[in-house]
Every structure is written in structure tokens, then in C-alpha cells.
Amino acid sequence: MGSEGSEGVVPGTVRPGGRTARVRAAVLRAAGDALVEHGFDRLDLAEVARRADVGKTTVYRRWGTAAGLVSDLLLDMAEQSLPRSDTGSLEEDLRQNARLVLRTLTDPRQGALFKSVIAASLCNAHTADALHRFYATRIGEWAGCVEAAAKRGEIPAGTDAHEVIRAVSAPLYYRFVVSGDPLDEAAADRAAEAAVVAARAGTYVG
User: Fold this and answer.
1) Which of 8, 112, 187, 192 is most buried, judged by most C-beta within 10 A?
2) Contact predicate 172/183, CB 8 Å
3) pLDDT tens per residue across span 2-60
4) Which residues bind DNA (predicted)?
């Protein structure tokens, strides 16, 4: 289990600058590869250091635990995620959102990585917190397209933008984690359309 630093900061969640950026990138890439191959339970910091060609001491001092390493990996993924679309149409923006989620979950590496992190979050509080922060960041970024739609009059004022974005991705994650039903563009487009119809009907107001 991960431990917090002396000032209450989870190891690995403070973004480095300058010359340490290259080391961070190499370690996070190695950590992602190890998660895909072996899962969280077998994520070993010494092995990650070897893969990244970085000293073990550096990895243990900076990230401390597997949970700290995964926390920083998710932070990095949030930082590198594509920006939201801005097409001027809520339906098209949400379709773009759904297809972005689809591409992520069906990508051989990214899909396996998310599945591993989701599984780890069920038994590790620090990993769960990091995953929640990751999704809060992404939902917050995409909420802007819903807020813009409300200003244009496409949907009622007072629509909860975050709930609309959650409604788009929820059916796709259900297929990904629970049901095993096909994940394809048809499923993504249906999720987006359903969210738009519900938003226009005032489902997410208040």
C-alpha cells in the first residue's frame, strides 16, 4: 500500500521540472508497460527501474510505492489527453467524446492499462484516489461543451454538465469492464445520442 509524504502528498504526484522530466517519462513508460504485462499486483519498482534504465534509488526515492507510481502515471495521462472538441453542436461534441473513449478502451495498450488500473483501484485507496482525479479532470474539461450548448439554447439552462459527460462514457465502460458486449462506433454513437436526448429533455437539470 502507498504512503503519504511528510506534507501529506502522495509520492509521485508532484510534477518534476527541467532535467528530471526525461527520467519521469522513461519511468512512467516502463511502469505502463509493466502494468499491461503483469497487472498492479506484480508491479515492482526495481523492475520498473531496470526497464527504464534508471537507478533503483531514484525510483524508490521519488515514487516510493507502486501506488505512488500509478498515481503519477494517471496524472501524466491526464496531462497528455487530447483537448475536448468544439464543433458548435452538442450532439457532435458528445459523439467525438464517445469515440475518444472508444479509441482509448479498444487500444491494445491503453485498454489493458486502464483495465489494470481499474482493478487496482478496487483494493488500493491511493490508486482509487488517483483514478478519481484522472476522471474528474477529463470530465471537467469536456463539461465545457455542455455548458456552451446551454448558452446556445440547445439544452435547458441549469443542466448539470458533468452528469451529461458521465452519461456518455458510462455505457462504454460498462461494456468494457462488466458485460463484455462489443465496443464499436455504433455503441459509442448510441451513448452520445442518448445523452443528448436526455439533456434536451431536461433530465440533468438540478
Assistant:
1) 192
2) yes
3) 333 333 334 444 455 555 788 999 999 999 999 989 888 889 999 999 999 999 999 99
4) 44-63
- The residue from 77, 101, 126 where one domain ends is 77
Range of the domain at 54: 20-77
Q: Is 188 exposed, middle or buried (0-12, 13-18, 19+ CB in 10 A)?
A: buried
d(C-alpha 67, C-alpha 75), whole Å: 12
Instruction: Of 77, 78, 96, give the one whose Cα is nearest residue 86.
Output: 96
d(CA 141, CA 113): 22
Contact 172, 101 (CB under 8 A): yes
**pTM of this structure:** 0.80
Instruction: Tell me which of 77, 101, 123 is where a domain ends.
Output: 77
CB atoms within 10 A of CB 153: 8
Nearest residue to 59 (alpha-carbon basis) of 37, 35, 82, 26: 26
Cα–Cα distance measured from residue 36 to residue 42, given in angstroms and rounded to the nearest whole number = 11
pLDDT digits (tens, 9 = 90+) for 82-126: 677 788 899 999 999 999 999 999 999 889 999 889 988 888 888
